[in-house]
Amino acid sequence: MNRFTVALASVVAFVSLASSNDAAPADQPETVMVTFRAKPGAEAELARVIASHWRAASELDLVTPTQHVTLRGTEDGHKTYFVEVFTWRDASIPDAAPATIRKIWSQMNALVESRGGHPGLHFEEVSLID
Question: Model-level pTM?
Answer without folding.
Answer: 0.80
